[in-house]
Amino acid sequence: FTASLLLGTTLTISSNHWIMAWAGLEINTLAILPMISKSHHPRAIEAATKYFLTQATASALLLFSSMINAWQTGQWDITQLTNPTSCLILTSAIAMKLGLVPFHFWFPEVLQGTPLTTGLLLSTLMKFPPITLLYMTSPSLNPTVLTSMAILSTALGGWMGLNQTQIRKILAFSSISHLGWMTIIISYNPKLTLLNFYLYALMTTATFLTLHSTKASKLSTLMTTWTKAPALNAALLLTLLSLAGLPPLTGFLPKWLIIQELTKQDMA
Amino acid sequence: MAVAVVLLSGAPFHGGCCRHKVFLSLLGPLLSNSKLYSSYRRPGAEPKKKLSWQNADFSFKKSIDHLKTQLSLLTKETQDYLQGPGGHPLSQHVLEQTRVLWQFRSQEDLNKWVISSDVEIGGKSKVYIKLGRNNQAALLYGTLNTEVPRDGETKYSGYCSMRSRPAVGSFNRKKYYDWSNFNSLYLRVRGDGRPWMVNIYTDPYFSHQKDDLYSYFMFTRGGPYWEEIKIPFSKFFFSSRGRVQDNQHPVWLDKASFLTLGLTIGDKVDGPFQLEIDFIGLLNDRAHREEFAYETYDKN
Lengths: 268, 300
Fold this sequence. Notes:
Chain A is mainly α.
């Protein structure tokens, strides 16, 4: 399944035809489903079903968008998306794939039902192909729609994560928030989006692997991990602060550059 | 299909006056007011006289009052949200080791529970609930009757149960609680020596899992003394539609949304029963390290 995930991801990021990109996304979706439902617990099955339904809908919308563009312009090239209707439908498809507001409701529930390692894949590897498609089509997409979704994602990701007691849900809302940061700058400086994504993936990987090794899935368990692995707990503290964007840690860098770029665009 | 073709092709021969009869015979079940499925009513079930929309009360004043109540609930929920998870500060959530969920001190506490028995399938058991002496406990009592109703399909009978109503917030939305900090159920009861079954229903999202239930036994001692029963959540076994499943898994309590707790008696012994319940709560028993009591299908 991991090999299929890598195949699907590689297929999508290296393609310039919409059908190949869609095929890669479908391979990714189908490959991750058995990993989500591996434990056969009803909650895991529920998470897998929710994931399948949302991702299948998003894939269908993506294909629909590419077909409208192909019908209107005769182009199947990903970078040649010019039809306004196609752009709008593609924006909603990518938002659903990524978990941007207002299509974010599935993400915390799915992440809560999965084991921590699969949750890591969902938060990092599964986000890579849609971010790549967004990167390639960003000049054609409506900046107002993207900015609105980004601001809502950043705000709601932060507020909804406030009273959570399950760590996976907190990380899901953190992911939604970071996706907001990535999306807001994509129309003006797409390279910052990629930088933000790479650093987010690195920090999230560190967080998930630490939580996996300490087997902490809720806050009360996290309170007692310092007795079992004090050094790892201290590293987790720094990683979480970095995710939060505290200077002088790494996570501050993309946020600083994004705000700087937005200031240049008279938006901040 | 062939019958329909024959019937329709035969219609012109019988003349135009009979054509509508042919259509009616084909479309009869769809056109009639009766439901498409069987209208058999189980004995004990009340005959349905009114349609569900006819029970709606369209009074404007009542709707305004209802809206005011819901808005005040929503305000309270927002204030609780600002305070912390479940309306309590985070420190309380992290440090608490016990929590009382239901205690029976007033009629309002009793109204949070629903009693039922095999009368709903045509049986003859009786169950009642009232406040005990000095309003210090709930008294669940009645008579169990294992006589099978004569409807030709029921094979077993004889159960009485008490189930908690699921918690709803403002505008009838589900309330989510996180009980994952606790690992045991704690009940202070005084029984009559009869065994009970404690059932937990976690309201799953998809309809395929709506019949899933987690159960365990509660053996009461009988006698004048109260007993405090601790049932770890790791002991609850999984069943679906009343059948214990081979593929067992522990109950997850992180999303106790519509979670309902039920106490059922069905020990196949005719006669009276009685159970006094002081309170039902949760406990984090640090000495209990077991994760799950039953074998799962995981590969080693």
